[in-house]
Amino acid sequence: MSMSTSNARRERQRGEARRSILDAAEALVVERGVEGFSMRRLAARCGYTLPTIYHHFGDKPRLLEALLDARFRELVEVLVGVTASDDASRDLRGMLAAVVEFGFDNPSHYQLLVSALQEGNEPPAAEEARALFEAPILALLADGRLRAPDVEVGVQVIWSFIHGLISLRTSRADWDWHPQLIDTALDGILGGVVIQSPARPAEIRS
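RESULT FIELD:
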């Protein structure tokens, strides 16, 4: 076996171990909260020894930081993957649809991210996600098409609707949800915060 093949295999095994440990850590945090999380419980859940976990992540705070950053990084990739257009309203709608799909497909990821934001534990990737999300809202404000008085109000209004949609849908997966639910909800959200006819450009307020 060549040295390059051996190194590639070690890197693959290292990546698999990190993913398994992070997945188990996420499950524990979602179940028990940060207060109920311990490295011993994590070792029992993931099947890796404590020395192995410490080798990959160091101590508990650094492991939790790595977990949050990894999950927010996934959200960043989702937002970056939205095709940009010349219409900020269309871009915002695409991002909202992507976030909703992300929440539906990854309920534990989403719950972890919400908990982190509520506790003020925002890794660097969280700032990237927020900047991407705010970009079309800033553009709408600059074009005089945002009904909210500033970006922060717009973000909070939109986030409230999106969070409610994701939380209700994921908590009641047994309901017979209408196939047009998402499109209709997004139309309602955007109709409430976006002025479809361009108005006089507004000065961006910080």
